[in-house]
Amino acid sequence: MFRQLSERFGHPLAMAILTLLGMWLIVMVTLPQLQMIDYSFRPNLLPAQRGGPEDGWTLGNYVTLFDNEIHRAIFFKTLWSSVLVTLLTLVVSYPLAYYLAKVATPRQAALCILLLIIPFWINEILRTYSWFIILAFRGPLNEILLALGLIERPIRFLSGDAGVMVGMVYAYILFMVFPLYNAIESLDDNQIRAARDLGAGSIRTHRRIVIPHAKPGIATGCIMTFMLAAGSYAVPALLGSPGSRWFTQIIYNWFFEGGNWNQGAAYAFLLLVLCIGFMSLVMKFFKVGLGDIAK
Amino acid sequence: MSSQRLLAFGLRFYITVFFLYLFLPLMVMAAATFNDSRFPTITPWDGTTLRWFGELAADGGMWQALSNSLLVAAGVLCLAVPIGIACALFLNTVSSRGKPFIYALILSPLLTPGVIIGISTLIFWRQFGVSGGIFLTVLGQATFIAAYVMLMVMARLQRFDRTMERAALDLGASQWQMFRRILLPYLKPAILSAAVIAFLQSFENYNTTLFVVGYDTTLTVYIASKVRTGLTPAVNALGLILILITVALAIAYEVKRRREQAALARLARV
Predict the structure, then answer these.
(1) Cα-Cα end-to-end distance for chain A
(2) Which residue of B has its CA nearest to A248?
(3) Domain ABC transmembrane type-1: where (chain B) (predicted)?
(4) Do B211 and A255 touch (CB under 8 A)?
(5) Does the structure show a pLDDT above 80 at A47?
(6) Chain B contact for A140 (CB, 8 A cutoff)
(7) 3-class DSSP state of A36
(8) Pairwise CB contact (< 8 Å): A4 & B93
(9) How far is B270 from chain A (nearest CA, A)?
(10) Residue ranges of domains in chain B, CATH in brackets
(11) Tell me, what's the pLDDT at B268?
């Protein structure tokens, strides 16, 4: 590795590159993760007890989750809701990505992409906060529904999981649109035309031509969206209520309210395992590799 | 109407609704800034006012949070940009059996939830007696922002014509001169874009920051805490200002990018 680098850039520069890379990968990426995993397998001890007889590896922190019915329920709710958010986002994004890539003229597409980028650059907190205003008990959505006579009493949108999920689809949609757009854009228009000429209808063209081609994009979008949804703290904190807590909020409480970092580390590791599991599943299902995701 | 045309019409309609969905919430939030109501809402409309901008400007906590955010972003730029560049150069140069593993490791921060990056950073530095604050926020954020920088620099580096490099060396340039005079100028646009993105990513980060920020606050953490406690339309005023800055930046960035593309297209024709 060093030989190849120093042949191209010379010794000093090769050293600098390897130092920066090594420092980042070891001190910032790998060691903290390993430390977190190590923490999760140790009991929460007082400083005086460290190194004592109780200071050893244990599964205790993981048993806590299994024994705690509420936490277990929230874990699975986070899993299912994140899957649902991912699917919803996919369904909402696909027509848009297809339009951008294949239907719109280059000028229209460029304008739409600029319009898409703007909210994407705006703070996640602010994007979520704007939904907080809309969904409020006396907010505009309730007022409109009341005025239209669709409901008789205002609805408490902010007290269940629905508000959280609406906010998440809104917050993460662009992580789905762009990978999809990139994938569909690389499809040769002639393939779509050929399918039409051979008598395939719209649905069939999508099912047999466009979607199979867009697989890497679908996989990337789903992985990113799921990871963002499952790991989201801002959206449930702002749009949820105590009754619709997210797993990340439980983790936060272990750290900053329960004061049990070991327990928190175990929960965090489980969240990481969940995300890695989902990612491997999607990659296997769509038969794509890590190289396709980074495009 | 034939089914083909009906479908095309349906798609257009969908696109319109989609963009309404994308922008209406932001407009509602912006509008609520000017409502003379104690709570941030647009219904009922209690009269138009600019007083929330005044209240925002008088809020010392906000200014402190803003200066912290800028400090953190500056720190992140200093760390993440060099790391990202080094990483791209490494991947572009080295081919060995260990590379797929290193590549996966490099991408891993992008696929890890932000809260976990924050948590692991917090836990790791505790053994050295470092607790949450600006320093850890810089480290935590730079961990994944460096990977974004790498992707953007890499995209340009892959289109680099290596014969230019060889030509420079054949003409007697040292390797350092080649890097300094050929490769770095070539990468400059990508590095600048990456720096802009890195700055924004850092400025608006919440999930990672929340765990490593300790008793300090960044602007994003400040906004979130305001939303949950003591909410007034002053938050909207801040949001509106941030949105306007973002829109201006996004447009400037896009215009610059298009000019470059047009210039490239002209070059390609010659």
Answers:
(1) 24
(2) B115
(3) 66-253
(4) yes
(5) no
(6) yes
(7) helix
(8) yes
(9) 23
(10) 60-235 (1.10.3720.10)
(11) 75
- Helices A161-185 and B3-32, packing angle to 10 deg: 130
Does the structure show a pLDDT above 60 at A295? no
Determine the residue among B12, B119, B181, B218 to mutate to test chain A binding: the one whose Cβ has the most chain A Cβ atoms within 10 Å: B119
- What is the spatial distance between Cα A129 and Cα B236, in angstroms, rounded to a whole number? 9
Query: Which pLDDT value is given to residue B9?
Result: 87
- Bridge partners, B140 (sequence order): none
pLDDT of A107 strictly over 90: no
Nearest residue, CB atoms, A231 vs list B207, B249, B251: B207
Could B15 and A117 be called an inter-chain contact, meaning their C-beta atoms sit closer than 8 Å? no
What is the per-residue pLDDT for B270? 64
Nearest CB among B7, B103, B123 relative to A261 is that of B123
The tokens describing B83, both together, are 């790391």
A92 near B CB under 8 A: yes
Question: Closest-CA residue in chain A for B169?
Answer: A8
| Per-residue model confidence (pLDDT) at position A102 | 87
- pLDDT(A162) > 80: yes
Burial bucket for residue A233 (CB in 10 Å: 0-12, 13-18, 19+): buried
pLDDT interval class at B251 (50, 70, 90): confident
* C-alpha to C-alpha distance for A172 and A166, rounded to whole angstroms: 10
CB contact under 8 A, B242 and A272: no
Count of CA atoms in the C-beta half-sphere (13 A) of A143? 11
pLDDT band of residue A265 (cuts 50, 70, 90) is very high
- Reported for B127-134, long-range contacts at CB under 8 A and 24+ positions apart, including other chains, are B127/A35, B131/B214, B132/B211, B132/B212, B132/B213, B132/B214, B132/B215, B132/B216, B133/B212, B133/B213, B133/B214, B133/B215, B133/B216, B134/B68, B134/B71, B134/B72, B134/B75, B134/B213, B134/B216
Question: For A68-293, CATH number?
Answer: 1.10.3720.10
> Does residue A187 surpass a pLDDT of 80?
yes
| Residues of B with Cβ-Cβ distance to A289 under 8 angstroms | none
User: Residues B27-77: pLDDT tens digits?
Assistant: 888 888 888 887 787 877 888 888 888 888 888 888 999 999 999 999 999
Residue for token pair 């003409």: B171
Q: Which amino acid is at A210?
A: V
> What residues contact residue B100 under an 8 Å CB cut-off, 6+ apart?
A290
Q: Which of residues 27-66 of A touch B (CB under 8 A)?
A: 28-33, 35-36, 39
- Rounded to an integer, what distance in angstroms lies between the CA atom of residue B233 and that of residue B229? 12
Inter-chain contact B175–A28, Cβ cutoff 8 Å? no
- Looking at residue A294, what is its pLDDT? 62
Predicted pLDDT at A109: 87
Q: Report, as an integer, the average pLDDT of A137-145.
A: 85
- For residue B124, give both structure tokens: 């790791």
Kindly tell me if the per-residue pLDDT of A176 is higher than 90.
Answer: yes
Q: Residue A81 half-sphere exposure, CB side, CA atoms within 13 Å?
A: 27
Q: B35 has which bridge partners?
A: B48
> Where do the domains of chain A lie?
1-40, 68-293
CA atoms of A109 and A113, how far apart (whole Å): 6
Residues of chain B found within 8 Å of residue A278, distances taken between Cβ atoms: none
